[in-house]
UniProtKB/TrEMBL annotation:
It comes from Lolium multiflorum (Italian ryegrass). This is Uncharacterized protein. GO terms for biological process: response to auxin. Belongs to the ARG7 family. Pfam families: Auxin_inducible.
């Protein structure tokens, strides 16, 4: 019997797997613009502590799915009108998870995380 076709992240997004210990991991498509937000950097630092810097495969975020969605919602609001893409739940037929409002934020550089995004 053929497997259900897995959705892939659309252009301009990266796929991340999210889930704490004991929780089923879910896949999300995160807009590339979110990666420079300080809150997403904090999630990547969590992943680095949990999995190490040289983690292979898709980006894995070791936090509860509901917490991740809340953080992404804040990021989405912060970016507001500056971006047009939103978090997508790839395990739920690509449903949009967050909406945007306009708030200010600061950008940070993430050069040490470049290795996390290699396939």
């Amino acid at each position: 019997m053929p497997h259900r076709a897995e959705m892939v992240a659309p252009k301009g997004c990266v796929t991340v797997r999210v889930g704490a210990d004991g929780e089923e991991q879910r896949r999300f498509a995160v807009p590339l613009g979110h990666l420079s937000h300080p809150l997403f950097a904090a999630l990547l630092e969590e992943a680095e502590r949990e999995y190490g810097f040289r983690h292979q495969g898709a980006i894995a975020i070791p936090c509860r799915v509901d917490r991740f969605v809340q953080v992404e919602s804040v990021i989405d609001r912060d970016l507001g009108e500056h971006h047009h893409q939103h978090l997508l739940d790839l395990d739920n037929c690509g449903a949009t998870v967050t909406g945007g409002h306009n708030h200010s934020h600061s950008h940070i550089q993430l050069p040490r995380f470049v290795g996390c995004f290699r396939a």
